[in-house]
């Protein structure tokens, strides 16, 4: 198999949502199936579309001329069955909208509509109900419009109503056909919808067992692999050696083991003497991380693959025995040959595409436990941008609570458009109640609120300077401000009580250039480091090491501007107009709090704040951005002296200007055509009286034609300006 067996497997490669091929039976006979993997939440959904997922109307159908629609999933029934059986849960939405059209003809009649599922079985229950019960969802919930019936549509009313719910009994899915027979009466009409097949979970990917002693093992029936063997599994261990699995015959055998901390060996003997394929890793494999092993043997070759390392391939001998004849039980995690057993975890073990249920067998075997803890040790690195890996019984998830990002791996930016005057203010909670009668020991009140470090990160995109991007102030009139100066340089302004005002200017270009820039400001104790666009720009050592009693953090315009110094105040007059993304201050994400939890978080929003994607704005063609600017356009250009006065233009003035330009172009064309016709007429007369002047008149005509093109071109340039 060249594709993964489920969307769950793709997620643990760090993939994001999209279309993928999955091969549910691995190296089995079934081909791959194209699905959509929705990797945006804790549950990884797999969706398979069919040929008609829209709302479809039906009229003129009765028992003699039933309406029938069959569904094509661009796959075989066996492929869909293999995918469904592997998952934990599946569903399909079933909706029936009706006007004087009965559905199941409850409570006691023969149904007027039904659907066909797996194995071509006819089913008489509807979405939201259970197999074997001829009802709809409202019947189970006792919420039907007419309590005498078990479906809303069975009340046979003249007005539109519907029965909608989920078909979720896996063994009956997918829906392969729907039949409707009651839309041929007067004023009778219906519309139906069967949604895509959606499933989540992988019952095999996390199927694991923990081997706690070297003498412990699991036993399974004999592995029948006479001419071909395909074995795959994950393992993690801290032991230096051990046998993963072993199966014996009279003389033949097959074995996979970790023979040293950096070596995996696959041994096979079909009667010609042992063949050993060994893969050596440059780093230890007993690092308590998950590693993948795939061993294959057929009539032509024996091969072994470990993780992404080069595959070891041994060609089979041309002569001799070729059938692998085994007759003992299969040992997993141990051995019958008194060799050293395996200490650690094995999961997702497949033999020739078939899953071995390790968890079920471990439940009844001493020395072996079902499942395996510690998934974050292997997959925690997939949680980015401060996301925290959270252990689950089957897998892990990324907690993005303290991250400025979101999504399954904390990699999706959270960004918003700011207009002139927009502000987002995060209020820090005071450590103790502050009273008007506070004594001279007011510094003691904030003793626990001292910040000896700042880890600040954000991205911005704007066309306006000066601008105030970020402002942090304290109860002791200290502050940190990040601004764009009038020429577009980036300034980080620190005011600490002992050091006074410190200004750090990044003058490597104009940052108000409609491009996305990434800023990181890190202070640990006395040392300050500033990075812009992943490039180290500045280092500095403070004499003051504490930022005392932080009061608030503001993005955009600061409302309480009385205490601002002149330069910051000048930038604050314009606020920030543009896009801010993924703003992080230590463990706080103020912009994310404003967009996701505005009613819960201690955050205040003033002005217009619109969620958007800074990256997509940057990718847009800036040449298509109109210069006609309104207050809702964050990137329009205005007079720097009056940031709001010139923000709005009159539509009537624009229309009048366009009409004037069009009229001017028409007059230009008329004048040029008149000149051209006149010269052409003169040239024709001259050619009759003076043949030798023909080339000169031709040149004059050609020049006139060139003048026509140039004049029209000039008119066009003037119009576009």
UniProtKB/TrEMBL annotation:
<protein>
    <submittedName>
        <fullName>CNTP5 protein</fullName>
    </submittedName>
</protein>
<dbReference type="InterPro" id="IPR000742">
    <property type="entry name" value="EGF"/>
</dbReference>
<dbReference type="InterPro" id="IPR050372">
    <property type="entry name" value="Neurexin-related_CASP"/>
</dbReference>
<feature type="disulfide bond">
    <location>
        <begin position="345"/>
        <end position="372"/>
    </location>
</feature>
<dbReference type="InterPro" id="IPR001791">
    <property type="entry name" value="Laminin_G"/>
</dbReference>
<dbReference type="InterPro" id="IPR036056">
    <property type="entry name" value="Fibrinogen-like_C"/>
</dbReference>
<keyword id="KW-0812">Transmembrane</keyword>
<feature type="domain" description="Laminin G">
    <location>
        <begin position="207"/>
        <end position="372"/>
    </location>
</feature>
<keyword id="KW-0732">Signal</keyword>
<keyword id="KW-0472">Membrane</keyword>
<feature type="domain" description="Laminin G">
    <location>
        <begin position="433"/>
        <end position="614"/>
    </location>
</feature>
<feature type="domain" description="Fibrinogen C-terminal">
    <location>
        <begin position="1"/>
        <end position="50"/>
    </location>
</feature>
<dbReference type="InterPro" id="IPR013320">
    <property type="entry name" value="ConA-like_dom_sf"/>
</dbReference>
<keyword id="KW-0677">Repeat</keyword>
<dbReference type="Pfam" id="PF02210">
    <property type="entry name" value="Laminin_G_2"/>
</dbReference>
<keyword id="KW-0245">EGF-like domain</keyword>
<dbReference type="GO" id="GO:0016020">
    <property type="term" value="C:membrane"/>
</dbReference>
<feature type="domain" description="EGF-like">
    <location>
        <begin position="373"/>
        <end position="411"/>
    </location>
</feature>
<comment type="similarity">
    <text>Belongs to the neurexin family.</text>
</comment>
<dbReference type="InterPro" id="IPR002181">
    <property type="entry name" value="Fibrinogen_a/b/g_C_dom"/>
</dbReference>
<dbReference type="Pfam" id="PF00008">
    <property type="entry name" value="EGF"/>
</dbReference>
<keyword id="KW-1015">Disulfide bond</keyword>
<keyword id="KW-1133">Transmembrane helix</keyword>
<feature type="transmembrane region" description="Helical">
    <location>
        <begin position="653"/>
        <end position="678"/>
    </location>
</feature>
């Amino acid at each position: 198999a060249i594709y993964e067996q489920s969307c769950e497997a793709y997620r643990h490669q760090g993939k994001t949502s999209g279309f993928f091929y999955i091969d549910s039976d691995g190296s089995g006979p079934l081909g791959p199936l194209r699905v959509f993997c929705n990797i945006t939440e804790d549950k990884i959904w797999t969706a398979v579309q069919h040929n008609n997922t829209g709302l479809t109307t039906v009229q003129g159908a009765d028992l003699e001329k039933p309406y029938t629609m069959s569904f094509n999933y661009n796959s075989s029934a066996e492929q869909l069955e293999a995918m469904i059986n592997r998952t934990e849960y599946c569903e399909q939405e079933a909706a029936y909208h009706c006007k004087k059209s009965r559905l199941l003809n409850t409570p006691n009649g023969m149904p007027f509509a039904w659907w066909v599922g797996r194995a071509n079985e006819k089913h008489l229950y509807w979405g939201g109900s259970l197999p074997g019960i001829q009802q709809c969802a409202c019947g189970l919930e006792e919420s039907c419009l007419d309590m005498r019936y078990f479906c809303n549509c069975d009340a046979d009313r003249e007005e539109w109503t519907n029965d909608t719910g989920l078909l979720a009994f896996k063994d009956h899915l997918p829906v392969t056909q729907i039949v409707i027979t009651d839309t041929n009466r007067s004023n009778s009409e219906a519309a139906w919808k069967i949604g895509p097949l959606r499933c989540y979970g992988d019952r095999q990917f996390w199927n694991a067992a923990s081997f706690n002693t070297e003498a412990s093992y699991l036993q399974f029936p004999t592995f029948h692999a006479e001419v071909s063997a395909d074995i795959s599994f994950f393992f993690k261990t801290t032991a230096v050696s051990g046998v993963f699995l072993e199966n014996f015959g009279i003389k033949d055998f097959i074995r996979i083991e970790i023979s040293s901390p950096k070596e995996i060996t696959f041994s096979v003997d079909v009667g010609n003497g042992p063949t050993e394929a060994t893969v050596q890793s440059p780093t230890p494999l007993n690092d308590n991380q998950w590693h993948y092993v795939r061993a294959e043997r057929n009539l032509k070759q024996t091969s072994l693959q470990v993780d992404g390392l080069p595959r070891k391939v041994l060609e089979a001998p041309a002569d001799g025995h070729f059938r692998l004849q085994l007759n003992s039980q299969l040992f997993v995690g141990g051995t019958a040959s008194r060799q050293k057993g395996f200490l650690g975890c094995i999961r997702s073990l497949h033999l020739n595409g078939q899953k071995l249920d390790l968890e079920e067998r471990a439940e009844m075997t001493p020395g072996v436990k079902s499942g395996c803890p510690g998934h974050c040790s292997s997959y925690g690195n997939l949680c980015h941008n401060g996301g925290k890996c959270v252990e689950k019984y089957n897998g892990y998830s990324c907690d993005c609570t303290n991250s400025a990002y979101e999504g399954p791996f904390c990699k999706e930016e959270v960004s918003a458009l700011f207009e002139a005057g927009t502000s987002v203010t995060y209020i820090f909670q005071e450590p103790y109640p502050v009273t008007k009668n506070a004594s001279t020991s007011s510094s003691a009140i904030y003793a626990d609120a001292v910040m000896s470090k700042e880890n600040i990160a954000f991205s911005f995109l704007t066309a306006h300077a000066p601008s105030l991007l970020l402002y942090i102030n304290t109860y002791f009139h200290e502050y940190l401000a990040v601004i764009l100066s009038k020429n577009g340089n980036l300034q980080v302004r620190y005011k600490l009580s002992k050091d006074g005002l410190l200004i750090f200017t990044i003058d490597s270009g104009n940052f108000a250039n409609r491009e996305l820039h990434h800023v990181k400001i890190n202070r640990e104790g006395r040392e300050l480091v500033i990075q812009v666009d992943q490039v180290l720009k500045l280092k500095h050592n403070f004499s003051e090491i504490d930022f005392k009693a932080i009061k608030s953090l503001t993005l955009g315009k600061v409302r309480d501007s009385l205490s601002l110094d002149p330069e910051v105040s000048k930038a604050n007059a314009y606020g920030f107009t543009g896009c801010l993304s993924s703003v992080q201050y230590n463990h706080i994400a103020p912009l994310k709090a404003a967009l996701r939890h505005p009613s819960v978080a201690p955050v205040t929003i003033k002005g217009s704040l619109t969620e958007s994607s800074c990256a997509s704005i940057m990718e847009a063609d800036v040449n298509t951005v109109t210069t006609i600017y309104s207050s809702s356009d964050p990137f329009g250009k205005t007079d720097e002296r009056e940031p709001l006065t010139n923000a709005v233009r009159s539509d009537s003035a624009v229309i009048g200007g366009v009409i004037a330009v069009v009229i001017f172009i028409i007059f230009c064309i008329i004048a040029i055509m008149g000149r051209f016709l006149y010269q052409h007429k003169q040239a024709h007369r001259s050619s009759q009286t003076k043949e030798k002047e023909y080339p000169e008149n031709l040149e004059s005509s050609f020049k006139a034609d060139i003048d026509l093109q140039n004049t029209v071109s000039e008119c066009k340039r003037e119009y576009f300006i």
